[in-house]
Write a structure and sequence with these properties.
The structure holds 3 protein chains of 3 kinds. Chain A is mostly helical. In chain A, 80% of the residues lie in helices and 0% in strands. Chain A has one domain. Chain A is built from 6 helices and no strands. By secondary structure, chain C is of the alpha/beta class. Chain C folds into 2 domains: 2-76 and 147-206, P-loop containing nucleotide triphosphate hydrolases (Rossmann fold), CATH 3.40.50; 88-146, no CATH class. In chain C, helix 3 (92-102) packs parallel to helix 5 (130-143) and helix 4 crosses helix 5 (130-143). Chain C is globular. Chain C starts with a strand and ends in a 10-residue tail after the last strand. Classes of the chains: A mainly alpha, B mainly alpha, C alpha/beta. Chain A binds chain B through residues 134, 137-138, 140-141, 144-145, 148-149, 154, 157-158, 161-162, 164-166, 168-169, 172-173, 175-177, 179-180, 183, and chain B through 144, 147, 151-152, 155, 157-158, 161, 164-165, 167-169, 171-172, 175-176, 179, 182, 200, 203, 207-208, 211, 214-215, 218, 221.
């Protein structure tokens, strides 16, 4: 056996725990999504100005929450990887990135679908949408750097440095984009600041947020598993070549 | 400190002797800015309106093209190994190279800006503030750029990746930089924008050499 | 003065290069690292120079781990890699002067003399031959002296005359109590040299 498996001993425990969680996460996701979508799309009141269009918000806003929190989670995970050199840390950041990018993309698409009836155009350089777009670029860069290294452990460290710098920058970017938007705000345009918080609206939002979180968890477990097994496969192949 | 300045002087000397590096970046900046009037039409009002943005974006892109110069040559000829092994802490070594990059690649861009600004029909007040804003904000370009350059050093086709990594992080500088110039043109106070740019530069000065040094340690492994 | 490596393990791209590798080197000794391509000669040398972190194991200088005083250790060796670390637009003298300043020493003219570079010292490195560049790079050993020389393929692209000259320098260095860690394909025929064979039981090739 060419390479020590001790480096991958930790993943064994990780795999065991996540395998136990996985079916529950999947069930909870289905339930929450069903309830959340019913509350959001049928039970919630229509807005007196926006009509049924306001219901896009229930898909859009939690997706934007997820987009931000997954990036933060990746940064924390990468910091853990850099400091304590835990082998699963880098892999879990890597596994989370495409899911985060998908949520960002969902937020962008639903945002522009909402914008069509509101603004009369699919894209307005609204502060929130613009920040989302930049966040999407950050996700793309993160995924690209993983693909650009042959050595996966090097790729992990490089991606960790990048995501940490990115995480420091995210609030600055958010602030600068808001600033830019107030400077250039044309008068009397509806903004995407979301509906006014009211309990009939808050409940579906929160349920959808939880549904997305458990959806994330479900896909995340599959992806981390795939990463760990992929890494093992690579090592076995190398051993095969060398023997 | 002596080694620090020595390294800056070496990099400047290399840039001067290679010569072509200066002129190529400058030419790119001029050509890129020239494309805008050709693209949007020569109406002076429109040009004056988009001038600050055009100049800042042009400066950003020109700077981007020079980033691989910070570490690439040293990486390829083995000098980077030796620089890492010197008694100068790697973070300071990185900072010295960043300063040299800023002096040789970014400052020339700032110096040529007034001429381009005039060609875009920018009022005189705007031109001075444009230069001030570039002077205060452009160190961020070299600093953040060095992190990206460190991460992509030694990569085949690193250039495209570098721009994908670095450009989104340049956005705050772009926003505050353009806002400062537009404020000055509209005879509004531009102080806050300049201070924000200075804040960005100082923040980047603290964080980026450390991150770039970490990236370089990875690169020489 | 001694250099000791204990149980070094090197993994590159998930591939085990060597493991449980150890050696020790005392003042006045030369260690010749042998091995096929890919056996990890360069990796080992970079590890000793601190550029590459061992996955496990320890490197000791004078009996203390180099991690305790990395800066102090860095002054104790000179690493000469595959690449020449010379700038083509600068002359040999300017190149050497920069590296000498960077390591805080100033024996440039002596170094140029020892390696027979005086005549070409002021021409730009860019127009020199491969052998001349190599000699300029090796001259750093004299211009920035250090007790331990870590030399990765120091004689590639040198002709026999200059190989002899380099051997004389090496012997002088060791005779004066220096140490050298050397990776070459060619046998240098040095009289007393310790050997470390990476193709042996420590390497992956014999597992």
């Amino acid at each position: 056996m060419a390479v020590d498996l001790h480096k991958f001993a930790n993943p064994a425990r990780f795999l065991r725990i996540t395998s136990a969680i996985f079916p529950w996460a999947a069930i909870v996701t289905v339930l929450l999504l069903a309830v959340g979508l019913y509350l959001a799309l049928f039970a919630s009141p229509e807005d007196y100005q926006q009509g049924a269009t306001v219901r896009i918000m229930f898909v859009h806003v939690p997706a934007a929450w997820m987009a931000m929190s997954i990036y933060v989670m990746m940064a924390i995970s990468s910091a853990t990887g850099l400091i304590w050199k835990h082998p699963v840390a880098d892999l879990s950041a890597k596994a989370a990135a495409p899911i985060g990018a998908c949520f960002t993309f969902l937020a962008l698409v639903t945002g522009s679908l909402w914008g069509q009836p509101m603004w009369g155009t699919f894209w307005v350089w609204d502060a929130r949408l613009t920040s989302m777009l930049i966040l999407f670029f950050l996700y793309l860069g993160y995924m690209a750097i993983w693909g650009s290294f042959d050595d996966q452990s090097k790729a992990g460290k490089a991606a960790a440095i990048l995501v940490l710098i990115g995480a420091i920058n995210v609030p600055i970017i958010k602030f600068s984009v808001d600033w830019w938007n107030t400077l250039h705000q044309p008068a009397s345009v509806a903004t995407m600041d979301g509906p006014k918080i009211h309990s009939s609206i808050l409940t579906p939002l929160l349920v959808m947020g939880l549904a997305y979180t458990s959806l994330f968890l479900t896909i995340f477990i599959i992806r981390v598993k795939a990463e760990i097994l992929g890494r093992r496969l690579r090592i076995l192949r190398l051993a095969h070549v060398e023997d | 400190m002596n080694k620090f300045t020595n390294l800056i002087i070496r990099d400047i000397r290399l840039a001067v002797r290679q010569g072509s590096a200066f002129t190529m970046t400058l030419s790119f900046f001029v050509v890129a800015v020239t494309l805008y009037p050709l693209g949007v039409g020569p109406e002076l009002n429109i040009l004056a309106r988009i001038g600050p943005g055009v100049l800042w974006v042009g400066a950003l892109l020109s700077c981007l093209l020079t980033l691989d110069r910070i570490f690439q040559a040293d990486f390829e000829d083995g000098s980077l190994d030796q620089l890492m092994l010197g008694s100068l802490p790697i973070e300071l070594m990185t900072l010295a190279k960043i300063i040299a990059h800023w002096l040789t690649s970014v400052v020339p861009l700032i110096l040529i800006t007034p001429i381009l600004a005039v060609s875009l029909n920018m009022p005189a007040d705007g031109i001075w503030v444009m230069m001030l804003a570039l002077l205060v904000g452009s160190p961020v370009l070299s600093l953040i750029g060095a992190v990206g350059a460190g991460l992509t050093v030694g990569m085949r086709r690193g250039g495209v990746l570098l721009s994908l990594l670095v450009l989104p992080l340049y956005i705050p500088v772009l926003i505050f930089g353009v806002a400062a110039v537009e404020a000055a043109i509209a005879v509004l106070p531009m102080g806050p924008h300049i201070l924000l740019l200075a804040g960005l530069s100082l923040g980047a000065l603290v964080i980026c050499p450390i991150a770039a040094a970490a990236a370089l340690r990875l690169a020489v492994e | 003065m001694s250099l000791t490596a204990i149980n070094l393990r090197c993994i590159r791209q998930d591939r085990l290069i060597f493991t449980d590798l150890g050696f020790s080197l005392k003042a006045g000794e030369i260690l010749w690292v042998q091995g096929r391509n890919g056996a990890g000669k360069s990796s080992l040398l970079r590890m000793i120079a601190g550029l590459l972190k061992p996955v496990s194991g320890e490197i000791q200088w004078k009996g203390a781990s180099v991690k305790e005083d990395p800066d102090g250790y860095q002054d104790q060796f000179r690493y000469i890699g595959h690449q020449e670390a010379l700038k083509p637009v600068l002359s040999a003298r300017e190149n050497l002067q920069f590296w000498a300043d960077f390591s805080g020493s100033h024996n440039v003219s002596a170094a140029l003399k020892e390696f027979d570079l005086e005549k070409i010292a002021d021409s730009p490195v860019g127009i020199m031959s491969a052998g001349q560049k190599k000699r300029t790079n090796l001259a750093r050993l004299i211009s920035s002296p250090a007790p331990l020389w870590i030399l990765d393929e120091p004689i590639s692209s040198l002709d026999t005359h200059y190989i002899e000259l380099f051997k004389k320098q090496l012997e002088k260095h060791v005779a004066a109590g220096g140490m050298a860690l050397l990776a070459t394909h060619q046998d240098l025929n040095l009289p007393s040299v310790h050997k470390l064979d990476l193709d042996g039981p420590r390497g992956r090739n014999n597992e």
